[in-house]
Amino acid sequence: MKVLIVGSGGREHAIASSVAKSPKVDKIYCAPGNAGIAELAECVSIGAMEFEKLADFAQENQIGLTIVGMDDPLVGGIVDVFEKRGLAVFGPRKNAAILEGSKAFSKDLMKKYHIPTAAYENFDDPKKALDYLKTQAKFPIVLKADGLALGKGVLICQDLTEAEAGVREIMEDKKFGNAGNTMVIEEFMTGREVSVLSFVDGKTIKTMTSAQDHKRACDGDQGLNTGGMGTFSPSPFYTDEVDAFCRKYIYQATVDAMAKEGREFKGIIFFGLMLTEDGPKVLEYNARFGDPEAQVVLPRMKNDIIEVMEACINGTLDQVDLQFEDNAAVCVVLASEGYPVKYEKGIPIQGFENFKDKDGYYCFHAGTAFKDGQIVTNGGRVLGITAKGKDLKEARKNAYEATEWIQFANKYMRHDIGKAIDEA
Which residues, 6+ apart, have CB-to-CB distance to 365 below 8 Å? Predict the structure, then answer.
């Protein structure tokens, strides 16, 4: 089988790495890909939002399965374009990808079907949002741009003045573009955050092993929100008791709710959870693999990823026994100094050879490119250094040791990824 992966980040590199293990696959393409993915796949210079060109490529090259890694093309309707041409594609259709594409939609869905989440209100008028804030006695409070904002469209405001400034930033100054035409204002929840990725075939849901992301740019969860600075799997805070509650009241309930709304969901649902004193609640949904969650979850998966994805498409996921290794993994993101605001690109990177033939160690490329015959930085998040271990402490130690194998000017990382492990 020939497989096409759509995307260019660390998540797509992790997907390509899993696909390359499948005995069903003899050729991988990636559009547009990056310098690391190029070692596993033939990179094709078609943008992720060029749906017709991608579908043309898939037809002309007899692609057996297209895997869409990114949120933008899914929300934009790439799956619908492929399905109309009779092409096999993994991911939700446009009317289902709205689960991630609109926070207002997903909050209303949860309210309608009694899926636990934070109290909230939706606004499409900045004046009404500002008036509502004046009635709120409890701070901090959370402001969310409704649409896609590269994982950065969430503001946690400590007081009324900060919240009012946040509303103007999102809805009037359009800091996140059209994503801020509508906004969600919700209560600030406290507790441990956990990410649970799942495969869905429209009816059946099979959850993967748990993970925990670190969104803030700086140590101690300080600084600006980013796309993710590192992650670990599994989460010691995701207990059997938590899992049982989520299976009953969140996971299957979400799949059933989408089906009842005429929005059958096939693909990946990412559940961002907050483990509050009142029990687990949904922080957010994503309609694809998390990045960098995929970098710690997929290396631990025992199944052939192609078989699982085909089962999602064919509606036979109930026949799959999804299994994960009894170990742990930690990913530390190496970023360019200044991310997520302003940073240099085009800086040469050294040390990739250190990962050759090192079992349990991975160097996933996120923002890299080829320039003058060498691999250079080409984004804010440059690489995801992932390592396995028999437990989380060993995996964390291995991952941080491996970050020293890579060198580039202005290399930046957090030094406390998985520190919560020591407190568990």
Answer: 10, 13, 34, 35, 36, 37, 375, 382, 383
Count of Cβ atoms closer than 10 Å to residue 126 Cβ: 16
Bridge partners of residue 231, in order along the sequence: 213, 331
CA 348 and chain centroid, separation = 27
Residues 187-206: pLDDT tens digits? 999 999 999 999 999 999 99
- Find out whether 283 and 291 touch, Cβ atoms under 8 Å: no
Q: CA-to-CA distance for 311 and 243, rounded, in angstroms?
A: 23
The answer to whether 288 and 70 have CB atoms below 8 angstroms apart is yes
pTM above 0.70, yes or no: yes
* Burial of residue 63 (number of CB atoms within 10 Å: 0-12, 13-18, 19+): buried
Structural domains of the chain sorted by starting position, each given as residue range(s) with its CATH number in brackets: 2-93 (3.40.50.20), 119-187 (3.30.1490.20), 192-319 (3.30.470.20), 328-423 (3.90.600.10)
Span 67-110, pLDDT tens digits: 999 999 999 999 999 999 999 999 999 999 999 999 999 999 99
- Amino acid found at 237: F
Q: What order do you get walking across the sheet with 183-187 strand by strand?
A: 120-123, 183-187, 141-145, 154-157
